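INFO batch 0412 | record 1 of 1 | parsing
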Amino acid sequence: MKNQHTSGKLWYYIDKALTIWCVAIMGLMALLVITSVILRYVFNLAFVWTEELIVLLFITTTYFGAILCVKEDEHIDIAFLREILPQKAGRPLKVVIGFISIVVQLALAYISLEWIEKTGSSITVGLKIPYSVIYAMFPIGFTSMALYQIRKIINILRNRENTAGEGA
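INFO prediction complete | emitting tokens
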């Protein structure tokens, strides 16, 4: 029981850190967009590195936001199958869908690692960093989504009634 409590606390801090990270990235992106627009239209200045950083931050919010969507059970869902099956089939269906999601996410993480190996050595024009640094968010994001999906399946199998919002 103590181990379950410790893992619950660990997940709480991971969830909190992930949320803070996403909010900080979004805030920084918004600040950069506002600053970039003011510099461009008021002072007629444009910097390549800020445009590149804005795109990078946007991609980052997408991938790390997707992890939060898995955590909160807010990802894209097709309810058709759940609606035509009996209600007691819902939990097993969620587990099966969870396992399929894990396989897809881990496959994408693996494929993205191969992709990084082939294309990651180039340097960005504005920020002058290797693309491998930017592309690293893909396997990190996909693997994190798979971990949250595993957490969700564990919660479903433990027979929790409402597991959404708990990494369910």
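INFO post-check: The longest helix spans residues 2-42.
INFO record closed
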